Structure formats: C-alpha cells, structure tokens
C-alpha cells in the first residue's frame, strides 16, 4: 500500500537535521519557485561565508572541504527527506541547488555581482528547463513506481543539479571567451 505524500512544513523542517539541510534552512518551503528561492538563499549564504572566509589564507581549501563534505551530506539529507515526504524528488528539497550554486560561485570567483547574476540566470535556466544532459541526469536515478525511495533517489536529486551547474559553467566560459578574444583565439592561445 502506497502512503500519501506529506506536505513539507516548518514542523518537518525542524524535526530532523536531514530535513533542515535538505529543505535549505526553510528556503525550500516557499510555495512559489522553491528551487529559485533556494538558489537565492545559496547566493546570499555564499556571499556571507565568502566575506567571513575571504581574509583567511586557506579560504579556497575551506570551500573545497565544505563542498566535499556537502555532497555526501546532501545525498544523505535528500534521501532521508524524500523518504519522509514520500516523494522521490520533492520540489521543496533545495540542498541540491544550494550545493551546486555554491560550487559555481566558488569556481567562477572572484567575480562581481553582475558575474554572479549571470551565473544565477544560467544555472536557473539549466536547472528549471532541463535541456539535454540535465534531462538525462534527472531521469537517471528516478524511482520506478512502487519502488521504495532509497539512496539512488538522493544521489539523483544531487546529480542533475551538478550537471546543470556544469552546463551553466560551460555557457559562461564560452561567453567569456567570446567577449574577450573569440572562441578560436582562446582555444589556440
């Protein structure tokens, strides 16, 4: 017997650390565009963390550690929250957007707010529209109807956003290459 999906609430958010992480400290509870709100929260939190870490000599190593720990932590939190909500990929889970956007901002930095805005727009396009490789990544770990929600779905929740971030980074890199010298000049420099 399949149980009905649960609606994400503040009570669920606060009930377990996995839910707090997966629901993006509450940003995923937005009734409108939770993925976009989660990405905005990622942007704000990145700027705050970057200001706190900016003066440290090993800030990049700290970010690398945050991202390395954030991946398996996210897979675990997304799996547990999807199981609790009884939905294989609930829209309220936004840790995947947060982690992927942190990765993007870290890789393109240092960059001003216009560059960060460009990254935001590119990432949201690939994450929401799911063209080509992102659609493939999104479908790769989907649960089969009747199959219990497990680690594969948590991995899938994270993986398609990683692919969306990579696609967005490629588009941004291409844009910079065209702006600076042209694609062929950059390739053969």
Structural summary, described in words:
The chain is mainly alpha-helical and 189 residues long. 70% of the residues lie in helices and 0% in strands. The chain is built from nine helices and no strands. The protein has helices at 10-15, 17-22, 34-53, 59-85, 95-108, 113-129, 133-140, 151-180, 183-187. α4 (59-85) packs across α8, α5 runs parallel beside α8 and α7 runs antiparallel to α8. The protein is globular, with a radius of gyration of 17 Å. The mean pLDDT is 92.
| Largest sheet data | none
Intertermini distance: 62 Å
Order of helices and strands: HHHHHHHHH
Rg value: 17 Å
Helix content: over 70%
- How many individual helices? 9
Low-pLDDT sequence parts: none
Q: What is the arithmetic mean of pLDDT? A: 92
| Global structural class | mainly alpha
The share of residues in extended strands comes to: under 5%
Shape verdict:
globular
The count of DSSP E runs of length 2 or more, i.e. the number of strands, is: 0
List the SSEs and their pairings.
Layout: H1 10-15, H2 17-22, H3 34-53, H4 59-85, H5 95-108, H6 113-129, H7 133-140, H8 151-180, H9 183-187
Question: What characteristics describe this protein?
Answer:
mainly alpha; single chain; 0% strand; 189 residues
Would you summarize the structure shown here?
The chain contains 9 helices and no strands. The protein has 189 residues and is an all-alpha fold. The chain starts with 9 loop residues before the first helix and ends with a helix.
């Amino acid at each position: 017997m399949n149980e009905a999906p649960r609606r994400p609430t503040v009570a669920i958010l606060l009930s377990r650390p996995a839910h707090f992480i997966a629901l993006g400290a509450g940003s995923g509870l937005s009734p409108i565009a939770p993925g976009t709100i989660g990405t905005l929260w990622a942007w704000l939190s990145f700027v705050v963390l970057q200001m706190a870490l900016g003066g440290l000599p090993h800030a990049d190593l700290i970010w690398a550690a945050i991202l390395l720990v954030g991946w398996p932590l996210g897979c675990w939190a997304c799996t547990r929250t999807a199981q609790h909500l009884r939905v294989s990929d609930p829209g309220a889970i936004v840790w995947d957007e947060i982690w992927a956007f942190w990765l993007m901002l870290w890789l393109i930095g240092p960059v001003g707010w216009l560059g960060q805005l460009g990254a935001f727009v590119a990432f949201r396009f690939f994450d929401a529209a799911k063209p080509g490789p992102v659609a493939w990544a999104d479908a790769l770990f989907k649960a089969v109807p009747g199959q219990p929600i497990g680690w594969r779905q948590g991995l899938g929740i994270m993986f398609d956003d990683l692919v969306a971030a990579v696609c967005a980074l490629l588009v941004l890199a291409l844009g910079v290459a065209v702006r600076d010298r042209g694609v062929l000049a950059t390739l053969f420099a």
